[in-house]
Amino acid sequence: MIRLALALLLCLSAPALAAPEAIVAGLSQNRVSITADFDGTEILIYGAVKRDAPAPQGPMEVIVTVEGPATTLTIRKKERRAGIWINTEAVHIDAAPSFYAVATTGPLDRILSDTEDLRYRVSPARAIRAIGLTSEAADPAGFVDALMRIRFDEDRFRLQQGTVEFVEDTLFRADVLLPANLTEGEYKVRIMLTRDGKVIDSQERVVGVRKEGLERFLNNLAHQMPLLYGLLSLALAGLAGWGASAAFTMLRR
């Protein structure tokens, strides 16, 4: 009898424990092909908020992140000593996204608490995991700041605050531009709903980025048969030099 009562209590409380608001989202494309004339593309992230009950009090916000494949990096600091520039300190970054964009409905520090940022790694600084700091580095955080500054200057990192359109706390859309210098791999798209600085629901999608056509053939050739790739490169360079010499000879005549 006690077990039956507990089972009935759990069944009755299950709807109350379910998330009152959930994301229903989609992407304009889930695959990007890098070809010879590729100069970047734009991804549209759209969706709606599904509710099984009236919306709670407080404004709702939307955060969208697009994260490229992570790579291992070593950041070195150069100093001039005895008239020569040499590497003095270094910090090893265990995983740094090759591309990272954040789009929000408002200021990130207002719509997401520090605790939730640490948990979900939303801000660009949190998305970088720095480990193995060398003992010579007096200011390891400065190295991470330098990496972020370089990535922002290269347009590989973006913080687009207030660019997500949110209509009547129901429909939303965000446009994220992917640059031409993309790294091949899977790009993770996250959509998060926040209220009072806390994430109440999140959803993930994946966009595949890969080279196609001649670019993919040359990339595979360079990695799988580097000797043949080098010989072909030398042959093409020699052929191009001979062609240019022959053309100039004909023009002089």
Automatic annotation (TrEMBL):
Alphabetized UniProt keyword annotations: Membrane, Signal, Transmembrane, Transmembrane helix
Signal sequence, start to end: 1-18
UniProt KW Signal keyword: yes
Listed transmembrane segments: 227-251
InterPro entries reported for this sequence: CHP02186-rel_TM (IPR019088)
Protein name in the entry: TIGR02186 family protein
Organism of provenance: Paragemmobacter straminiformis
Origin organism lineage: Bacteria, Pseudomonadati, Pseudomonadota, Alphaproteobacteria, Rhodobacterales
